[in-house]
Design goal:
Elements lengths: L1 H5 L1 H16 L6 H18 L5 E3 L4 E3 L1 H22 L9 H20 L3 H19 L6 H32 L4 H9 L6 H17 L8 H8 L2 H26 L4 H24 L4 H22 L2 H27 L12 H4 L1 H15 L5 H15 L3 H27 L12 H19 L8
Helix pairs in contact: 2-3, 2-5, 3-4, 3-5, 4-5, 4-11, 4-14, 5-6, 5-11, 6-7, 6-11, 7-9, 7-10, 8-11, 9-11, 9-12, 10-13, 11-13, 11-14, 12-13, 12-18, 13-14, 13-17, 13-18, 14-16, 14-17, 14-19, 16-18, 16-19, 17-18, 17-19
C-alpha cells in the first residue's frame, strides 16, 4: 500500500476517468462532462506533490522532477477541456469518449514523467500515443482528420518499433531496463561499447519523432491541420512535454556519462529542427500548418537544454515548457474563436473587429518570437544561457539567428491583424469559456514575462 501511495495522482485520475465514462451513459451534456473532467484534473493536481520516493523495485519514481511535469500535464488537460467546452468541433454524442481519451493520454504522460525503467516508459508512451491517435481522427466524417490519424498512427508505430529496438539493445548490454542500472553501466566504462551507440541512436530517433524534430516531423503538419483544433492544442503541448520529460530521464540521467556519444546526434537534430521548422513555416499560408512548423522550431530550441546534458539545462527546458504551454494553448484558442481561423484571411482587420482577441494574439506571437516582456523571452533566454554554460555557443548563435527568422512569419500575422482591412465579414465565437481561456493564457504569458521568478525552475 505504501508503494501505491506514490501512484495516488494516476490512480485518482484513472478512477475519475472511469466515473466520467460511466456517467456519460446518462449525461450527454458536453459542458457538464467537461466540468467533471476539470474537477478531476484539479483534484489530481492537488495530489501530485503529496509524496516522494520509489516504488516497484525502483521502476516508478515520484520526485520534484515528475511532480513538475504532472502539474504541467494537468494544466494542459484543464485548458484542452476549456477549449472543448466552448468548441463546436466536438459533437455532444461523443463528448464522453473525448474527455476520457484526454484523461487516458494524460495518465500515460504522467507515467512517462515518473518512469525510472524503460519498460514503464514504453507503457506510458503507448498509452499516451494510442489515445492521441484516436483523438487526431476524432472527426470521423472529415477526410482530413482520418488521413491525419492514419499518417500519425503509421509513423508512430514505426517510431515505437525503433524505441523497442533501442530498449532491447540496452537490455543486451546491461541485463536490465532500469535507468539507474544503465547509468551505473555507463559510468563504469560501458560507454566505449559500440552497441551502446546504436541503442542511443534508436532511442533519440524514437523521441525525436514524439517531439516532431526534423527529419522526424513529417506527421506534424498533417496531424495538426487534420485534428480538431482543441486536440491540436492539446497535442502541441502535452505529448511534447512528456517526450522531453523522457529525454531528461533517459539521456541526462541514464546516459549522462556517455554525453560524448549522444551529443553529436542531438546537435544535428538541433540544427535541422531549428532551421527546418522556421524555414518551412515561412512558406505556409494555412495558419494551422504555420503553427505546426512553429512547434517544430520550438522543439529545436528546447533540445538545446537537453544537449547541455546538465541539470541546469533540463531546468531551463522545464521553464520553457511551462511558458510554452500558455502561449501555444492561447494561440489555438484564438484560432478556435474565429470562423475559418485556420486561414490567414480570418485575421485581416481583427484589431478593429475584435481588439481584445487581437491584443491577446499579439501577446502570444511576441512570446513565441521571444520579444520581452512576454514570457517566451524568459524561456529562450534560460535555454540559451544553459547551452552557453555547457559550451554550445555556436549552436546558440544559430538558434538566435533563426529566432530572428521566425519573427518574419509571426509578425506577418501581426501585420494582417493590424494593417489589413477585412474583405469579408468573419464571425467570432461568443463562447465565454473560450474568452476566459484566452484571457487566462494571455495573463500568464505576460505575468511570467514580467515576473520570471514565478516560473524559473531550480
Amino acid at each position: 500500500m505504501s508503494e501505491l501511495r506514490l501512484l495516488t495522482p494516476e490512480i485518482v485520475l484513472t478512477v475519475c476517468m472511469l466515473g466520467i465514462f460511466l456517467s456519460g451513459l446518462a449525461i450527454r451534456s458536453k459542458g457538464m462532462l467537461g466540468l467533471m473532467t476539470i474537477a478531476a484534473a484539479g483534484v489530481t493536481a492537488y495530489l501530485v506533490p503529496s509524496a516522494s520516493g520509489t516504488a516497484f523495485e525502483g521502476m516508478f519514481v515520484a520526485d520534484a522532477y515528475s511532480s513538475f511535469f504532472k502539474l504541467l500535464f494537468m494544466l494542459t488537460l484543464f485548458l484542452a477541456v476549456l477549449l472543448a467546452i466552448g468548441s463546436r468541433t466536438i459533437r455532444e454524442e461523443y463528448a464522453t469518449e473525448y474527455y476520457c481519451l484526454l484523461m487516458l493520454a494524460s495518465i500515460g504522460m504522467m507515467f512517462m514523467a515518473s518512469a525510472n525503467d524503460l519498460i514503464i516508459l514504453y507503457v506510458g508512451l503507448e498509452l499516451m500515443s494510442l489515445s492521441v491517435y484516436v483523438l487526431t481522427g476524432f472527426q470521423r466524417e472529415s477526410r482530413w482528420s482520418n488521413e491525419a490519424a492514419m499518417k500519425y498512427l503509421l509513423l508512430g508505430t514505426f517510431a515505437t518499433a525503433i524505441l523497442l529496438f533501442g530498449i532491447a539493445m540496452v537490455y543486451v548490454l546491461t541485463g536490465s531496463t532500469s535507468i539507474a542500472a544503465v547509468a551505473l553501466y555507463v559510468m563504469t566504462g560501458g560507454n566505449t561499447d559500440p552497441v551502446l551507440g546504436i541503442a542511443l541512436l534508436a532511442i533519440i530517433i524514437a523521441f525525436g519523432f514524439k517531439i516532431a524534430a526534423v527529419p522526424f516531423h513529417m506527421w506534424a503538419p498533417d496531424a495538426y491541420q487534420g485534428a480538431p483544433t482543441p486536440v491540436t492544442a492539446f497535442m502541441s503541448v502535452g505529448p511534447k512535454a512528456a517526450a522531453f520529460a523522457a529525454f531528461g530521464r533517459v539521456l541526462v540521467e541514464g546516459f549522462g556519462a556517455a554525453w560524448a556519444e549522444w551529443a553529436p546526434a542531438v546537435t544535428i537534430l538541433v540544427v535541422l529542427t531549428v532551421a527546418g521548422g522556421n524555414l518551412l513555416a515561412l512558406r505556409q499560408d494555412n495558419v494551422k500548418r504555420m503553427f505546426a512548423y512553429s512547434s517544430v522550431a520550438h522543439a529545436g530550441y528546447m533540445l538545446l537544454g537537453v544537449l547541455a546534458g546538465t541539470i541546469a539545462g533540463m531546468q531551463a527546458v522545464m521553464t520553457y515548457l511551462a511558458i510554452y504551454a500558455f502561449m501555444n494553448m492561447g494561440v489555438f484558442t484564438v484560432m478556435l474563436m474565429l470562423e475559418n481561423g485556420e486561414e490567414r484571411s480570418a485575421y485581416a482587420g481583427l484589431a478593429k473587429r475584435q481588439p481584445l482577441l487581437a491584443g491577446a494574439m499579439l501577446i502570444f506571437l511576441f512570446s513565441l518570437t521571444g520579444i520581452p516582456p512576454a514570457g517566451g523571452f524568459v524561456g529562450k533566454l534560460q535555454v540559451f544561457l544553459a547551452a552557453v554554460d555547457a559550451g554550445q555557443t555556436v549552436l546558440v548563435v544559430v538558434a538566435v539567428i533563426f529566432s530572428v527568422v521566425s519573427a518574419f512569419y509571426y509578425l506577418r500575422l501581426v501585420g494582417t491583424m493590424f494593417m489589413r482591412e477585412s474583405e469579408d465579414s468573419v464571425s467570432c465565437s461568443a463562447s465565454k469559456t473560450l474568452l476566459f481561456a484566452v484571457i487566462l493564457t494571455a495573463f500568464f504569458v505576460l505575468l511570467l514575462g514580467i515576473f520570471p521568478s514565478l516560473v524559473l525552475v531550480g
